[in-house]
Each structure stands twice: as C-alpha cells, then as structure tokens.
Write a structure and sequence with these properties.
alpha/beta, eight-stranded mixed sheet, two-stranded antiparallel ribbon, globular
C-alpha cells in the first residue's frame, strides 16, 4: 500500500463501509451498548460479522469461558435487536491468548477474518472494530499477513500516551497480540482508555431517562447496568458508568470531527513491562485524544431507541 492510500485509510471514511466487530461482550456493560449502536448505525455501517473475544476476570473461569460467554451474549443482543440474520455470521474466537508474536491462535473468528480480508483492497478496506483483547485480530494477521493491506483496525485499548502505565484490561490481557497489531503496519486507529475515553461517562439516571421503556433492548441494557452497579444504586449513590466501547463505533461515524478529535503519531511499542516505548522511524497510526461526550451520547440514545426489537 502506498503512503498516500495508507494515510487515507487512517481517516474517517465518508461513504458507507463494511465492518466486523470483535468483542468480549460479557465482560462489562459497554460492549452490549457498542454492538447495539453499530447495528443501529446502518446509514454508515454494513455489518458483515461479529467475533467473540476472550477475557479473564471475575466473570469468567478462563479466556475460553469468557469467549464462550461473550458469544452467548452476542446472540442475545442480536435477537433483542431484531438482527437474527447475523447469527450465522457470528463466530467463536480464541480460547487462549497468544503464546508468542509469530503464531496466531486458530479459531473460527480468526480464520473468518483472515479469509474475509481477501475480498477487500487498500482502496476498499474492511473495517475491524475491536473492543476487547485483540487476540483474534492479531491471529488473523499472523494467519494471513496480506490482510494488513485490506483492513483498517479501530481498537479501544491501552491508555493515553502520557498516562502513568499501559496496564489497561484489553491490552494487558494479551500484550503479544497488541505488539503484533501495533507493529505489523496495518492501518490502526487507537482509542486509549484512561486519559481519553474515560470522558465518555453516562450517568445512570441519564441512561434511564433516555432509554427506559423505549424497547426491549434498551430495557435489557439498563438491566445490565443495574446488575453491574447494584450496590451503589441500592445505597442511593450517584452512578456514572464509562461506556468505553461505544467510542470505537463512534469513530467510524465521526464526520467533521463531531464526536472526537485525533492526530497521526508514530506507532508506539507496547512493552511487556506495561509501558510504551517510542521509535520515530515506525509507521503512523491515528491516535484519538479527545471525546465530545454530549454529542456522542445524544447520537447513541437517539439510535438505540429506533431499533426494532423482539424477545430473546
């Protein structure tokens, strides 16, 4: 890919584009919002597939268990959103993290992305929205290195460049995978968590005002937030939840910088000691540094209530 085309692919596309979503959907509450927002943005996004990403925390017994729970949650959201046609294009992802930076983890998701990328080109790329550990995407790039020419990766991962460390959940789960994606030259848009995306915080009372009773999916999303914030709500405390992953979808909708601002930087190197190192000879990536909370929140609410939902 020539440098002019590469830089073009780091810009927000102006036309409708094909997308896939890689998500650890059961990990928190933000992935469900992001998946629903993507489905509701059909004026700009043509959803081709959804991939379940691995995760390991108090909600899972292993990366495999987290991935399988995420797969089930994806299916649940697709049914609630009235998009059952995508179930056949929903794939289970990696059952473990990368063991090194040279061999990908074989999974239905990674293999689908590696094969699907062959149908695209630098002039007409496939956009990969990644909002979990980036194992599936890195594996696809290792399985088919030429995929780097034909896709653009939009990843919510890592912290801001000036933050004190890079020990962010999506990145630290699989640093080897992050190093593959940051190092292989694939067009990459990074949305850092603490220091940037943490600004996209939605008060529970605001979410309730805009979403309660609008449709079954909106009520389900509120239910998931209540489940995650039950103690604070029971104590009548103020609750605001950072809905991190919505911002990755929002970047593709960011015409005229309505929702966020970004700049080109030389790709940093995620190190195994939870920091970045820098080399100005490396290729450029697009780095988001500012989120317009109100504009993005209003677009999210307006779209979620328009989904034609059905019982799961």
């Amino acid at each position: 890919m020539d440098i002019k085309q590469y830089i073009t692919n780091l810009s927000v596309p102006q036309n409708k584009v094909d997308v896939v979503l890689d998500t650890d959907t059961f990990n928190e509450v933000d992935d469900q919002f992001a998946l629903a927002y993507m489905l509701a943005s059909k004026e700009k996004l043509n959803v081709k597939a959804v991939y379940a990403a691995p995760f390991l925390n108090e909600k899972s017994e292993s990366p495999k268990d987290g991935m399988n729970k995420s797969y089930d949650e994806i299916i649940r959201i697709l049914k609630l959103a009235g998009h059952e046609e995508l179930i056949d294009n929903t794939y289970r992802g990696s059952e473990r993290y990368l063991e090194n930076e040279t061999v990908g983890v074989i999974s239905p998701a990674a293999c689908d992305l590696a094969e699907r990328a062959k149908n695209y080109s630098p002039e007409n790329p496939l956009y990969v929205i990644a909002i979990g550990a980036i194992t599936n995407v890195a594996s696809a790039l290792l399985i088919n290195p030429e995929a780097a020419e034909n896709i653009v990766v939009v990843w919510l991962g890592g912290h801001a460049l000036d933050y004190s460390h890079t020990k962010e959940f999506n990145m630290c789960q699989d640093i080897a995978a992050a190093r593959v994606v940051f190092g292989c030259g694939v067009p990459l848009v990074q949305l850092p968590c603490c220091g940037v995306v943490h600004a996209f915080s939605l008060p529970y009372q605001e979410m309730e005002h805009f979403l309660k009773g609008k449709n079954e999916l909106c009520d389900f999303l509120l239910k998931r937030v209540r489940e995650n914030e039950s103690e604070k709500l029971a104590a009548d405390k103020a609750v605001a939840r950072v809905i991190w992953d919505v911002t990755a979808v929002g970047w593709l909708l960011n015409t005229n910088n309505r929702f966020m601002e970004s700049r080109l930087i030389h790709s940093p190197v995620p190190e195994y000691d939870n920091r970045y190192s820098y080399d100005e000879s490396r290729h450029f990536i697009n780095y988001v540094y500012f989120i317009n909370r109100n504009e993005l929140a209003n677009d999210l609410y307006e779209k979620l209530v328009t989904l034609q939902t059905c019982s799961a």
